[in-house]
Specification:
single chain; alpha/beta; Fumarate Reductase Iron-sulfur Protein, Chain B, domain 2; Glutathione S-transferase Yfyf (Class Pi), Chain A, domain 2; 26 helices; 49% helix
């Protein structure tokens, strides 16, 4: 790839050079950057990387191996965007830089092709992912996994391979798309018209969470449309240098959902939800899809965001011997006899509700693409705190990246573990028995951390905790 082409590619995100001029180098991003915290090098900070991108884009600095490594060292957690007073769109800059880097000699062509093959032919292919997932299921169920781990044979091939292998989640016996009907109806009145994106990894490796989501939405009075022709959202491709393919998937999803009538498109994966909300921006220059993308993105809601905004009423199992009927997250407290349903308000007056004993010590980790990309932070906490019997403990540095970051924990395992150790120490300090988070990557990474750092905590999606507590 010629230098001239490299610069032109980078300049695509600099229509008037404004996006780079926004950065005033104030340094407020430094305290929030996980990689700068490790190295204390300016080049490993958001403003340092912006300076490097600006210099390369203007031809003031040569593309180099250091440049390539720094762009890939970044977790793309976008915590710096939340901290930035100037509103710099750092995530879009770093992702564009990666597209350019993948076409240079500073990245192995073999590794690029392998990554592209895995993301395109396996992750983005429903059948391909199902085949791989079924093999992984056999590997887990037959005892072969235990044998491989016991022998330590993977260490022969790579010092980290045995560790990376433990990142794989338990594969569900049944994939969620085979269990979810294209149209699901609540048992009672239809109160909300929703659609559901079951995703790729969520469909096979976290299928139980998808089923929990459908069950809880039905209890809320949702009619749920789940188009069978939907596809992967494209986020992993978009964040890893293959935006062209990601946009093909975006168009397919828009076409699949455009045929149906719904008010909210529910996502239970922070990464998927963030990327689908960004379709409007990504396709704004596409004359055929710009308006469709705006409509599509405007309806996307994280499942916790939906609960917090719509406040659906749910009936929960008794904490002691009574039932609790709860509106999430806005509840009206009402004392009742031991035989009646009890209405509880948010926030609960703990002094007046001592009969509601705490039986779930819970904390919450902010998935990066939920808090930083979607700006959703208070909503999940409101919902969690409103659940009867929950004792909530705030997690220190809850918004600090756990190190998952898409496929970062696979391709840069050692760097990811440094972030994970920090996260697990904070979780341990809460003394919580359950840690909740709204992204599959975070769930897998933190579960890995419970084993690696011996932290006794159960990792759940918030919707799974809600499903457990529903009146049976």
């Amino acid at each position: 790839m010629s230098k001239e082409i490299q610069y032109k590619e980078l300049l695509k995100i600099l229509p008037d050079d404004d996006i780079l001029q926004q950065c005033i180098h104030c340094g407020m991003c430094l305290a929030t950057c996980p990689t700068y915290e490790i190295t204390k090098l300016e080049r490993s900070s958001p403003r340092g990387r912006i300076k490097m991108i600006k210099s390369v884009a203007r031809g003031e600095m040569e593309m180099s191996r250091i440049f390539a490594d720094e762009m890939n060292f970044c977790l793309d957690c976008q915590a710096c965007e939340t901290a930035c007073p100037a509103g710099v769109q750092y995530g879009r800059m770093i992702e564009t830089a990666r597209v350019v880097i993948d076409q240079t000699e500073y990245v192995s062509k073999f590794s690029v092709e392998i990554k592209k093959f895995v993301l395109r032919k396996i992750v983005a292919s429903r059948n391909g992912l199902k085949i791989v997932s079924r093999f992984l299921w056999i590997y887990q169920k037959t005892g072969l996994q235990k044998l491989i781990r016991a022998t330590g044979i993977l260490k022969i091939f790579s010092k980290n391979l045995s560790e990376i292998e433990t990142l794989s989640p338990l594969i569900a016996d049944k994939f969620s798309d085979t269990q979810i009907n294209e149209i699901e109806l609540p048992t009672g009145e239809v109160k909300y018209k929703t659609a559901f994106h079951f995703g790729c990894l969520m469909n096979t490796m976290f299928a139980d969470i998808n089923i929990d989501t459908i069950d809880v939405l039905k209890e809320c009075g949702c009619k749920i449309i789940t188009p069978k022709d939907q596809v992967c959202c494209g986020s992993l491709m978009g964040h890893n240098g293959d935006m062209e393919f990601a946009l093909k998937l975006a168009r397919k999803n828009i076409d699949a959902f455009e045929k149906h009538d719904y008010d909210f498109l529910i996502s239970n994966s922070a990464g998927c939800g963030a990327f689908m909300k960004d379709y409007a921006h990504l396709l704004e220059d596409d004359p055929d899809y710009a308006e469709k993308a705006k409509r599509f993105s405007s309806k996307v809601k994280d499942v916790m965001e939906f609960f917090a905004e719509q406040k659906p009423e749910l009936t929960f199992q008794s904490v002691i011997s009574k039932e609790s009927s709860t509106r999430l997250p806005d509840r009206q407290a009402e004392k009742s006899s031991s035989n009646d349903i009890q209405q509880i308000s948010l926030p609960i007056n703990r002094d007046r509700n001592d009969n509601h004993k705490k039986n779930q010590n819970v904390t919450y980790h902010d998935a990066c693409h939920l808090i930083h990309a979607q700006k959703i932070s208070t909503q999940p906490r409101e919902v969690i705190k409103s659940l009867p019997g929950v004792e909530y403990t705030e997690l220190e540095e809850a918004s600090w990246c756990c190190g998952s970051a898409g496929i970062y924990n696979v391709v840069r395992y050692d760097d990811a573990v440094k972030q994970l150790e920090r996260k697990m120490n904070n979780i341990k300090n809460t003394k919580a028995k359950i840690v909740l988070t709204g992204n599959p990557g975070c769930m897998g990474q933190i579960k890995h951390g419970t084993q690696k750092f011996n932290v006794d905590v159960e990792v759940l999606h918030p919707v799974t905790l809600i499903k457990r507590m529903l009146k049976k």
